[in-house]
Description:
Layout lengths: L2 H18 L4 H15 L3 H20 L16 H27 L2 H26 L7 H14 L3 H12 L13 H11 L2 H4 L7 H31 L6
Helix pairs in contact: 1-10, 3-5, 4-5, 4-10, 5-10, 6-7, 6-10
Amino acid sequence: MDSYELxxxxxxxxxxxxxxxxxxxxxxxxxxxxxxxxxxxxxxxxDLLTQSIKNMMTLFIGGSSVFSGGSEEYDAxxxxxxxEILDKKLNEYKKISAVExxxxxxxxxxxxxxxxxxxxxxxxxxxxEAAKIYGYAPKDEVERQFMLYIFQLAFxxxxxxxxxxxxxxxxxxxxxxxxxxNWEHLQQEYRDHIDLAKLLQLVPVIGAPVGAYVxxxxxxxxxxxxxxxxxxxxxxxxxxxxx
Length: 243
């Protein structure tokens, strides 16, 4: 194991500890307020969010052309090289999502509604890129399942993230028995995870800066999760992952 991989072991340990530590009182209280506000959202907004999730389900189940292409161009790269390429790709996607969030946020509630499916598409395309960079083919149904676990690990409640982390850490050991995605649960977890700040994107005037900032942060969160999930698989495959 080289010095870079030793440093990654330490980073993974800290990242996993963050996931396994329950939210503090402030976050828990904020979550209750957020859920209350979500319950007051117009049915139009809730329906659009639900439809966005359903469209994602259709893509993943059907193996859409968005998953085509392999990972051959990244063969034989070291973990450091893969991480560096992912960081560059992530920066591109964060900028794209920020511009998209600012544009839809500037239009108030009508254009703000369009942000939900657009941002979902950006997240899916990023996950496809991440899979290829770390040597996995997203056209493979098993790999699409793994990508969905990454999605859940990034955007779920504390308790569900702990369960999802366990699945990801043991992925290669249980390929024949990995639990199928519970689509209804995934949808609910994602909806409940949406930040109060994300809802503020629908408000005229402040919607543009809020939309840009929040979308940027959501891609950052997804990027960190994807990178560490694939790091775990890389080190586990080499038999070098430390507990």
